[in-house]
Amino acid sequence: MFDTLPARQADFANWSWAQIEPYANDLLSRPLTAASVDQWLADWTRLSNLIDETYNRRYVATTLDTTDKNVVESFHTYLAEVVEPAQVMEDQLNKKLLASNLEPKDFAIQLRNIRADADIFRAENVSLGTDLQKIGTEYDQTIGAQTVQWAGEEKTLTQMKPFLHSDDRALRERVWKAISERRLADRARLNEIWGRMLPIRLKMAANAGQETFRDLQWKAFKRFDYTPADCETFHRAIEAVVVPAANRVYERQRQLLGVPTLRPWDLDRDDVYPPSRPPLHPFTDVTDLEFKTEAIIRHVDPVLADRVKLMREEKLLDLANRKGKAPGGYQTDFAASKRPFIFMNAVGLHDDVQTMLHEAGHAFHSFEMHGLPYSQQKEITSEIAEVASMSMELLAAPYLEKKYGGYYTESEAAHARIEHLEHIILFWPFMAVVDAFQHWVYTHPTQAADAANCDAVWGDLWARFIPGVDWSGLEDARVTGWHRKLHIFQIPFYYVDYGLAQVGALQVWRNSLTDASRAVQQYRYALSLGVTRPLPELFAAAGAKFAFDEATMRDLVTLIEGTIDDLRAKA
Ligand SMILES: [Zn+2]
Prior knowledge:
mainly alpha; three-stranded mixed sheet; 23 helices; binds zinc ion
């Protein structure tokens, strides 16, 4: 039957579910034995990849031009008419595989994940999930509608951000306070949204037979290799080792500005990051960005550089900001064609250089996994996915200079690298606040239903992890910081992942300092494994320890601070 299924996605792009269904039925009815399971998985993979790529291509089209109603309609039609029945098919095929008790080669992790999904799935939670999504949209709308009147004009908070870069401290303070006041005007509204979301999550956990919502989310995120207690170990290690290093970053910033204490308007980004100065102008247009990215990565690994080249030649990069394009940046995969795709909104900033290297790392992950036989082996979790991307930012960093085909003078490159490394230090304590807050919420759900208690806990955590910034007189803004973290409202517990991945990425980079080619080989090998191994083994394959303790963090912070000192001599 499957020899009539198109090999090329282009020949499948307009297939209806009526055309696809016979193949789904064939997979569902085919007897499953030790002898037939490999072919069955291969056929299932071929069908899944074609549907997946068609879905992704239609999604990509909606982000390339948000004003084109036809592409939006085409995407929605595909969702309703093909993707939804395909999800039902995937669920049935998963159950069939579980029921067979067969263990195909390199499939143990995937079977474990399927079992976890089956274990927590409850039909009555589907509509509760939809309710949460709708309330999540109210959160987006509330945040999105926040504007301030500035110099006689209505401006979004994003449009106000550039003023926070000003050298005029009094102006920065006025801007920061205008933003803060506007946010506080929604305090009651956001507390009310929170008050509706929390009981739904508790109900979903109870429905699924889980003691807490945290237990439910742990299974949903497939966190089988670390526990909430490990997260607490991580928080304590951050408190002991990273917080003092973050204080040193803040202190340098204070001295640079020549101010008595560092206030929130002395940090040019939301909440935690100190300003980057001077502004860098790395490239003229996205063609320049593409060629320079390839040149830099060629110093990391020629094979990876050839992949950037191939993506450029096959038009798998859409990097320029333009009117009508969706915001942000992402990497996605065209599974049937075995090609990744990168989307971003470059405007000529150093951030764009960084985003491009980050998304390139994700794309390299896709390329490496194309060698795996079954699509199910590529369903990676964020902890390893972000090792792929964050490692590439670090591995490519030594080659940002013009003499390597990159963007900057020696001094500019040193500035850019210092900023990157300082970000890493400042991010961990912030991540610890966000993560510890959520552990408290879902182990104290009755107290957390009262927003005043949430404020108090957030305030205490802020004092514990981010003592280096002076918030005196700004108490209301300080304790409501949890309102501004989308993850807390929409993707609970999804945040520690970034902190853990950074621990892996830094170790990959550390290895490259002694043996660059071996470090990159290990990195690529780890990515090529997909999810065929547990997380600690994937880290080990990358040459990294999956650990969150004080000793590990101390080593990494020492390495970062030593590198910053070296770079400062060149900056
Ligand atoms: Zn990423």
